[in-house]
Specification:
about 250 residues; alpha/beta; 6-stranded mixed β-sheet; 4-stranded antiparallel β-sheet; 10 strands
Amino acid sequence: MHHPSRAPLLGVRGLRKRYRSGEGVLEVLRGVDFDLGAGEFVAVVGQSGSGKSTLLHLMGLLDAPDGGTIQLGGERIDGLAASRRDRLRNVAIGMVFQAYHLLPELDVLENVLAPLMVRYGLLEWLRMRAEARARACDLLARFGLGARLRHRPRQLSGGEMQRVAIARALVTGPRVLLADEPTGNLDEATGAGILDALCELNRRDGLSIVLVTHDAAIARRADRVVRLAAGRVEETGCTSVAERVPTAA
């Protein structure tokens, strides 16, 4: 287990988010405080509509809060100009979703390389393409996909597609990985394999992870569980060594 440093890697204070719903306004987040330490694996749980995915999307800069602050590495990141927000998301924040969001016209290797191709201009990409390919191939081999580099998404199973999505999120070398129900579309055995991969990334590589889930058994694999209810943090606590489900061999 990696122990979080005193200063959080990712810090949220008083986060608020509302959406218009017909004639009224729906308050989704009502002043959420949340910290993620460097090297920590935190599960965010709660019933449907409690604000779990909204919190993750705000921390991933996919949406803007209506109040409160978000800091990454001590720097405030909410309210950035669009270009800086896009750059930060490409460089420092990896995201994985329940839907894989792979590009069907690209093969596995091209899907994983896509964030780096977006980051660099043509000349810079040509200079560092071999290094990027080597990094992508290493990640895919680590996830058991070394023989699938030229396959299209339609030729893969759900578990394989999710592993490609995780490799794509990691190829940029992010400081934090945000995962929104990453096993939600998978059967139990395949989902367990994806969770094993995330646990290994945290334990072996020290990757900081926030995982949104509605499944208490999945949450027990994390270092700490944060429960949301009605748009607020209801409780937060460490998972004991006795409770934590071991990673499958």
